[in-house]
Amino acid sequence: MKKLTRIALALTAGSMVAACASVQSTPVSPASLEGRTWVLESVDGEGPVYGKRIVMTFQPESSTSGKMYGLGPCNRFFGGYTLANNGTTINFGTVGNTMMACEPKVMDQELKFMAAFVPTHNISLHGDQLVMTSEDKSKSLTFLPESSQIKGKLSFKGELPAGSEIVVRLEDSSLMDVAAITIAEEAIKLDKATSSPVSFDMNYAPHLLTQSHTYTVRAEVISQGMLIYTTTTRNLADFDKPMTVNLDKQ
Boundaries of each DUF306 domain copy (predicted)? Predict the structure, then answer.
């Protein structure tokens, strides 16, 4: 996990540089938004509740508008967007969401997160940071892209049937007696029967990592709604080189 140390040092250095010199902001375009998973850095200046990976994706449909969707602290959300004023403002219109209930502190941030989607925001890119601020400056959202990758292959005996879905997760497994926290996730759908190995290239956001924490990679295979393969051993994440993750048949 040597690279994790370098990531942490780079983030610290980056924060120091940012404190000393402002990063020039630029307008956004559909091309600069699409093809990335944007991970929440802050809502109204506060970071996400620990363990919550809050993401947003843009799907352009024209040169100025499209759809957006993602996962909030508790529920999935979705809606449309329109860019205006040469990419310096964005209008979300009506944003819908599912209606699951979560623990109180998560629901508190859920309400704050959804309230931040006021109809019109000023929007800009500060380097890789996506910044959205309401016109009256009372609401703000900042996101960073999943800009790094962890790579490897999944090894297993037998053959995975056509139509199977493999889900690979990068998890923070530092805390004892607490469920692992998902940092990143990749879903791989198989159109045909597939033999070992299967490669994965999972994107993640470096700002979600903490230097002193332990990170592992877990995978499972679902076919016709049933778990047919999964990892049964602890696989420490290797950020330096491709890793091998073994799957066992259930």
Answer: 31-143
Domain covering 30-145, topology: Lipocalin (2.40.128)
Determine phi and psi for 109, rounding to 5 degrees.
-75, -30
Distance CA 198, CA 227 (A): 17
Give 94's Cβ-side CA count (13 Å radius).
1
Structurally, at CATH architecture level, domain 148-249 sits in Sandwich (2.60)
Long-range contacts of the stretch 98-104 (C-beta < 8 A, 24+): 99/75, 100/74, 100/75, 101/74, 102/73, 102/74
| Per-residue pLDDT tens listing for the chain (250 residues) | 545 544 443 333 344 334 334 568 899 988 899 889 999 999 888 888 766 788 999 999 998 999 999 999 899 999 999 999 999 999 988 899 999 998 898 899 888 888 888 788 899 999 889 999 998 888 899 999 999 999 999 999 999 999 999 999 999 998 877 778 889 999 999 999 999 999 999 999 988 888 899 999 999 999 999 999 999 999 999 999 999 999 999 9
Every domain range in the chain assigned CATH 2.40.128.270: 30-145
